[in-house]
């Protein structure tokens, strides 16, 4: 069985060495790049399963690399950057990054983000995903064909906007979706909604699907950036009702 391959794009030698050692210790194959130009070449030639990308490269800004790579592949891109401003995160995620980890980072958290990205990639690439009509995640079930939502076997009645929000998050499970992306996808005219209004819709949705909305299990908030549907461990998508 082929190892999952990781492309590490990082110009800081110490951080790059930490990442390569971590990948090796956890059974991943890896490639490295120190510049944006090299990263693009490696992305084309090595066809990595996951890209770990620093934004502050010496030749090309990381956001531009994301846009270029996204023109030919949907494989996960996890930004690992010292840039911690919300605007930087939003720009990277809107450009097509799947996740954003701020330096300094925990190795355990980095590995967890990689595992989530790999699970989503494998699901997206599976034949079952193309024909799937039911989404299962822990106690949450969405029957797309019937337009119904169940939590722990009990049907939950959602408004049309709440249902569209939940489906958007579910179809991008594991991926951080920015406020702007969500508003563009849900409302034909983005001016019909703003970030404070979106927060209200999310709050009402959480009250209906979460046992404890103040400690959400399914929908994670990334403050100032957006939201993510969390993949519940030991559960998978299923066509079974």
UniProtKB/TrEMBL annotation:
The modification 4-aspartylphosphate is found at residue 54. Residues 132-231 form the OmpR/PhoB-type domain. PROSITE patterns: OMPR_PHOB, RESPONSE_REGULATORY. Keywords: DNA-binding, Phosphoprotein, Transcription, Transcription regulation. Signal peptide: none annotated. Residues 132-231 bind DNA. It holds the Pfam family Response_reg. Residues 5-118 form the Response regulatory domain. It comes from the Bacteria. InterPro entries: CheY-like_superfamily (IPR011006), OmpR/PhoB-type_DNA-bd (IPR001867), Sig_transdc_resp-reg_receiver (IPR001789), WalR-like (IPR039420), WH-like_DNA-bd_sf (IPR036388). PANTHER family: KDP OPERON TRANSCRIPTIONAL REGULATORY PROTEIN KDPE, REGULATOR OF RPOS. May play the central regulatory role in sporulation. It may be an element of the effector pathway responsible for the activation of sporulation genes in response to nutritional stress. Spo0A may act in concert with spo0H (a sigma factor) to control the expression of some genes that are critical to the sporulation process. This is Stage 0 sporulation protein A homolog. The lineage of its organism: Bacteria, Bacillati, Bacillota, Clostridia, Eubacteriales.
